[in-house]
Amino acid sequence: MTPTDTTSTRRTILRGLAAGAALPVAGAAMAAEGALAGLPKSPAGSAQEIATDQAYWAAVRRLYAVTPDIVNLENGYWGVMPEPVRREFMRQTEMVNRENSYYARQRFGADFEAVRVKVAEAVGATPQEIALTRGATEALQLLIGGYNRLKPGDAVLYADLDYDSMQYAMNALKTRRGVDVVKFNIPEPATRQAVLDAYASALEANPRTRLLLVTHVSHRTGLVMPVAEIVRMAKARGIDTIIDAAHSWGQIDIKVGDIESDFIGFNLHKWIGAPLGIGFLYVRKDRLDSIDRDMGDEDFAESDIRSRVHTGTMNFATVLTVPTAIAVHQEIGAAAKQARLRHFRDSWVSRAREFKRLEILTPDEPGLYGAITSFRLAGKTSKADNEAIVAKLRDEHKVLTVRRAGVANGQCVRVTPALYTTEADLDRLVEALAVVTGSKPG
Ligand SMILES: Cc1ncc(COP(=O)(O)O)c(C=O)c1O
């Protein structure tokens, strides 16, 4: 399919949604009457040009009903639903509550399967490679815990920037699989080459490594790893990678093939904007036998990826809303979204770099950042230091950020804009940082 075909198919689907037509992707239960009505029309031009089209983004912003009480720059936690998605979620919640187990017993199975097919298509995989989960945590725990190619005496590796609970899951492999667990640090400030060198040295220093965990977009600093190069480097040594893509799909414009790993855990409730409680795992078709089946499943065939996940009862409405979230994401466009988020990040970072004592931890190097960037005040590395900064920003300037721990060189503060952010929001942040750094009297 050419990009034009994709766009026109998308438009047809969106028109279908707006008209309440039955969707081929998920059947009549998925038809979202009027769900996308009012979605602004994407302007023509490159992603870069679209990124600064004020009228367009003002219209996009109106899709988000968020509190005016605070400038929320803590959008790394999860992604608030745009109104068409929220309305669809409410509609599906009402439907499920009304139709009850009659719906769940008669129709949910087919609808669930249609959602899996939709997700696979959107992320560039086949349905045989995707299984839905309740989030990236569940996906990654199943991949890390289920990876069955380790022998006692092998080593597994991860870095300081990886997510805490994924580090813990890797640590658990010591007792479960009898392996050595090695942690190394990502250099700061990071450059593409320095990051690649750090992975190369860690692999060189640990020749028994068989499994490497890599976080595609760090939740601590927003650093976007050169993930495909790292995966290739590992593969060349016969090492498998598990990629934590909890933050990447939707924040940056990628598909499964760009990551190149055989095992990836994704979220749908962060940058795709689906309701809370949904993610998925990807296992490349010919690698399924490297992941154990879920101990809670004896129903699916060994060769079926769905045997690798057993969630129990899920929130049906959450699952049913995923196609609408994907449709909105695709209509705005992954490239335009990425460009807009980077534009926001550049807008505050370029000004904040002028402030004495303020260290930006996320490099400006193209490809190494998305929406998220963290900063630290020189020498302020403790929990208390950074909590105090977050409190000042929140209580005195009405700007919400979050403290992040776990970076080898010390704690920091993370700033994450969203599509509903405005230039004025970022002006407020920059003003606040000027005061906090002492560059301007308070
Ligand atoms: C890098 C990373 N990995 C994994 C997760 C876990 O995602 P969830 O809690 O949505 O399952 C998060 C959540 O913030 C994350 O930032």
Give a brief rundown of this model.
The chain is an alpha/beta fold. It is built from 14 helices and 13 strands.
Structural class: alpha/beta
Contiguous uncertain segments of 5+ residues? 1-33
If you consult CATH, what is the topology of the domain at 118-325? Aspartate Aminotransferase, domain 2
Round the mean pLDDT to the nearest integer and report it: 92
Order of helices and strands: HHHEHHEHEHEHEHEHEEHHEEHEEEH
Radius of gyration: 22 Å
CATH superfamily of the domain at 118-325: Type I PLP-dependent aspartate aminotransferase-like (Major domain)
Distance between the termini: 56 Å
Instruction: Please list the strands of the largest sheet in the order they lie side by side.
Output: 2-8-7-6-5-3-4
Helical segment count: 14
Helical content band: 40-55%
Task: Write up this protein.
With 442 residues, the chain is of the alpha/beta class. Among the domains are: 118-325, Aspartate Aminotransferase, domain 2, CATH 3.40.640; 336-436, Aspartate Aminotransferase, domain 1. It contains 14 helices and 13 strands. A 7-stranded mixed beta sheet has the order 2-8-7-6-5-3-4, sandwiched between helices. Strands 9-10-13-12 form a 4-stranded antiparallel beta sheet, with helices on one face. Strands 1-11 form a two-stranded parallel ribbon. Helix 1 packs across helix 11 and helix 8 runs parallel beside helix 9 (227-236). The radius of gyration is 22 Å and the shape is globular. Mean pLDDT is 92; it is low at 1-33. Pyridoxal-5'-phosphate (PLP) binds at residues 135-137, 163, 166, 215, 219, 244, 246-247, 267, 279.
